[in-house]
Write a structure and sequence with these properties.
Layout lengths: L1 E7 L5 H10 L4 E5 L5 H6 L1 H18 L15 H25 L3 E4 L2 E5 L2 E4 L4 E9 L3 E3 L12 E2 L1 H6 L6 E5 L3 H12 L3 E6 L12 H14 L2 E4 L3 E6 L5 E5 L4 E4 L1 E4 L3 E3 L32 E3 L10 H15 L14 E3 L4 E6 L2 H6 L4 E7 L4 H5 L6 E7 L5 E8 L2 H13 L4 H5 L10 H10 L10
Parallel strand pairs: 1-2, 1-6, 2-3, 6-17, 8-15, 9-10, 9-15, 10-11
Antiparallel strand pairs: 4-5, 5-6, 7-16, 12-13, 13-14, 18-19, 19-22, 20-21, 21-22
Helix pairs in contact: 1-8, 3-4, 3-6
Bound molecules: 1,4-dihydronicotinamide adenine dinucleotide.
1,4-dihydronicotinamide adenine dinucleotide binds next to helix 6, strand 10 and strand 18.
């Protein structure tokens, strides 16, 4: 069977690309060896957010006495929590299957491998042909020396999300996004958690301002998560019973029952048949692509985690949409790489888009910066969510908004207004003259913008 488009990989890059391509009138096949939805839906964003919401409830209930409401300590039915999490992913996965059917996308179950610029061999024995091919094969957790995932006490993020057990002591190697999100979840589930991060600060890869990560670090510490910076884990030995003794690079030892390795993810670019089209991945295994996500082999595209850039589901979907339009003949389709928002679901949450203050100043231009604390918002006080702040960075000359960072409750949702502002080059004045409903959290963004203009109503002038 010959198609206009053949996509390998059904995650948020591949399935979105398939749907948009089909909507644009192309005949599409998608090859996927597992369930549609990819890591994001089954082993990443969605299950972690379900657990984030569930464990946040535990925290909120346990601290409600301040408001005169007392709950008994929670009793945890782990299989039921795991089943509920599965029900969330199953429902979404079913939705994708329905969407594919409705769009007439042929989903081929199996593992796909290029055997030429227009041909893919599927593990089922079929050979599929298409005018264009999209590689959307995603990424997998990186394994480090001395901590093989095959060891039952060494967890990848996939193992942690299976929720088979709550270890009494959990060591997390890597204080990146996965490390801190899962550290917070397991701490609330009752584990004694220690994060071991090689660099001087957590979440360093995100390029956030120090004051932003400091709030998250304080939140982790208050929750009882121990964070060790500037050290790595070198090896471990098994102790009597369930224990592990982990040796750290500073010569100290860390006792744990399970160790979660979250030191990054590697693109799934091997065994894809790239050599048959003359394409070579870079040192990290990522497939180099143009701004239209086209590889050096004309007609073969690559999107999402398998290409250089942030490994984020919404970035993969954005790539997929660009490629669909490019394949349908739009000569101007290109990825807005610098405008990918990033969100970390810690307590409090952290969300950013565009330039941080540090990056904007380093770029050399004059900048206007405004901030506003959650503690100044009536809504936040009533919610008992007073940690954190809103920050806006603008060009000091023309007042165009260059970046927004929000650390605090619901930051992930609140960022949307900032994304719109940066994407469309809104000025501080345009946001300032927009009436924001009261009492709401977005008022914090409005106040930060007014502060960048030097006219914040609820800020004491000094
Ligand atoms: P990461 O790159 O964000 O963080 C890995 C961390 O491990 C780094 O801080 C690094 O310095 C540290 N590290 C590396 N080797 C180490 C060692 N031997 N000992 C101690 N520390 C070491 O990678 P992570 O957290 O695994 O996430 C992978 C990808 O998944 C990221 O690109 C992330 O953006 C994405 N993701 C996004 C989420 C979100 O948007 N909320 C949630 C989870 C993952």
């Amino acid at each position: 069977m010959a198609y206009d488009v053949l996509i390998i990989g059904g995650g948020p890059g591949g399935y979105v690309c398939a749907l948009r391509s089909a909507h644009l009138g192309l005949r599409v096949a998608l090859v996927e060896e597992k369930e549609l939805g990819g890591v994001c839906l089954h082993w990443g964003c969605i299950p972690t957010k379900a657990l984030y919401a569930a464990t946040r409830l535990i925290h909120q209930a346990s601290t409600a006495t301040e408001m005169g409401i007392a709950f008994a300590p929670p009793s945890l039915d782990l299989p039921r929590l795991a089943a509920w999490k599965e029900s969330v992913t199953a429902r979404l996965a079913g939705g994708i299957v329905d969407l594919m059917k409705a769009a007439n996308v042929d989903v081929v179950r199996g593992r796909g491998r290029l055997i030429g610029p227009r041909e893919v061999a599927v593990s089922t024995g079929e050979t599929l042909r298409a005018d264009r091919i999209v590689l959307a094969t995603g990424s997998r957790p990186i394994e480090i020396n001395g901590f093989p995932f095959s060891h039952p006490r060494v967890w990848s993020s996939d193992d942690a999300l299976r929720l088979d057990e709550i270890p009494q002591r959990l060591a997390v190697i890597g204080g990146g996004v996965i490390g801190v999100e899962l550290a917070a979840i397991y701490r609330r589930l009752g584990s004694d958690v220690t994060v071991v991060e090689l660099l001087p600060d957590i979440l360093a890869a995100l390029g956030l301002d120090r004051r932003a990560t400091a709030v998250v670090k304080k939140g982790l510490t208050l929750a009882g998560v121990r964070v060790l910076n500037g050290v790595s884990a070198t090896s471990f030995v098994e102790e009597e019973g369930d224990g592990l003794k982990i040796t750290l690079s500073d010569g100290t030892a860390l006792a744990a029952d399970r160790v979660l390795v979250a030191v990054g993810r590697r693109p799934n670019s091997s065994d894809l048949g790239l050599e048959t089209i003359g394409v070579e991945p870079d040192r990290r295994g990522a497939i180099p692509v143009s701004t239209r996500c086209e590889t050096s082999a004309p007609g073969v595209y690559a999107i999402g985690d398998v290409v250089p850039g942030p490994m984020l589901a919404h970035k993969a979907s954005a790539d997929g949409i660009v490629v669909a339009h490019a394949m349908a003949g739009d000569a101007h389709a290109a990825t807005p790489a610098e405008l990918i928002p990033q969100v970390v679901f810690t307590d409090p949450e952290i969300a950013s888009v565009g330039l941080s203050e540090t990056a904007a100043r380093a770029a050399g231009g004059e900048v206007a910066v405004g901030r506003f604390a959650y503690a100044g918002l009536g809504k936040a006080l009533g919610m008992r969510e007073t940690e954190g702040f809103f920050q806006v960075v603008a060009d000091a000359a023309d007042h165009r908004i260059l970046g927004v960072t929000i650390v605090g409750a619901e930051a992930s949702d609140l960022l949307a207004e900032g994304v719109l502002a940066v994407r469309h080059g809104l000025t501080l004045e345009q946001v300032a003259e927009t009436v924001h409903a009261h009492p709401t959290l977005p008022e914090g963004f409005h106040e930060a913008v007014e502060n960048a203009l030097g006219c914040g109503i609820h800020t004491v002038k000094r």
